[in-house]
Structure prediction request, 491 residues.
Amino acid sequence: MTILTLSRTPNRDAVVLMAGLAAVMVSLLVGVSVSRPDLARAAVAVPVAFLLIGTAVTSARAGLYGLVAWLAVLGLVRRLLIPVGSSGSLGDPLLLVGPMVLFVLFLIAVERGAMQNLTSLSKAVLWLTIALAVSALNPLQGGLSVGLGGALLVVVPMLAFWVGRSLLDERTVGVLVYLLGVLALLAAIYGLVQTFYGFPSWDQRWITESGYTALKVGKTVRAFGTSSSASEYAALLAVGILSWWAIARRMSRLPVAVAAIAVIATALWFGSVRGAVVLTLAAMWLTFAASRGMSIGRALLVGLALLAVLPAVVKALSSSETEQTATSSLVAHQVEGLSEPFGHSSTLSGHFGEIVKGIDQAFTNPVGHGVGAITIAASKFEGTSAGTEADPGNAPVAAGFIGLILYLLVAVYGVRCSYRLAQARRTMPALAALGIVVVTFLHWLNGGEYAIIPLPWLFLGWVDAVSSRSSPAETTAPAQRTPPAISAGLR
Prediction:
């Protein structure tokens, strides 16, 4: 009845047609961009958006896979295009591709009943989305352009929750996990090349022109792979490790998974982002605990105990004398922060202070500053920048007291539901969903990590859908074996 109904069954001929039309559009736009370099990015953004949206309309799941892959290489594509065109005064058109495709997938998901049979988690996500969307109108952030930019970076990715709730099934989640594992592995290899062999010319140009000081550890520039920042790169590697960690449950995949984890973990270590390392270890433990049927309360207590001894373990394993190499400062930065989390070289206390400051604003400014204030839109459009680098502080800064309460509800419901599903089913998709939700924790509202922010919402939506359809026994009692249908879907 509507064009969205075409998404119910894949149409390969339509996809081929879309690809052909996209190629024609590329040719035309490239011709225009020769005389107008400022249109070069649009010459890439328009056909990519056209192709992905066309794919999503004909096959929603294929469109979703394409979107995840596009976001993973977005940073690299933007750097490759630096010599041929600027972003323009209104921003980079390449950044609009992801939100456009995701919005189309959201419409398809709603048509398929994504907002039916709402649970406590889905209601909390809905109200948090509304609160953040309304906060885009808050004048305290510096203007409507700041608010709309913030909504584009934070609110639109949250729509992935409803996509996951309607369009994902066990098999689709399994494919996504493999895809994320491969994308992270490729990013890790690229990042290791940057670390040990130097940056290609397009990356070096971006380092020079961006003035992005967070890239440097001492005098050494840390890798950023195919991502838009070092933090997004580290988060993608962490997601990849948890993906392969879940895949390793199948003995036939174990050798490949172990090799992939070794490569990605090496890249993560030399990425020198300590928070990502800690979250990765925490997520690996919780998925292991869930796979063994351990209760969430006991798993959290044991996990806290393990984190408490982590500094001593790192200190014991690290060498007191480090050979001076090009990467020694990266290793030293990692070791110092992990072995002495409250030492003078650690930034933990500073991060914690920012979060506390943000939570305090829930009471001093109950309406918040607006969603744009916690994103790069504030600096782009000369607004008020008040981000706290983590969700517990960003939520109240953006949407005030109600934002803090709704975020806490989403966090508690989301982690609890994810753990219970993984504990009950113990399948690769369920364990991977839990791992990705946990490893991205505290960064669900981080609009600057373009490839990462939709992922926890996507998997939370699937977890919520499965939990709402299952009986209490199915989501609280450990499964004895994987159902044949699920096993077949993962092959």
The chain has 21 helices and two strands. The beta strands are 216-217, 220-221. Residues 299 and 305 are 10 Å apart (CA to CA). The chain has two domains: 1-112, 118-489.
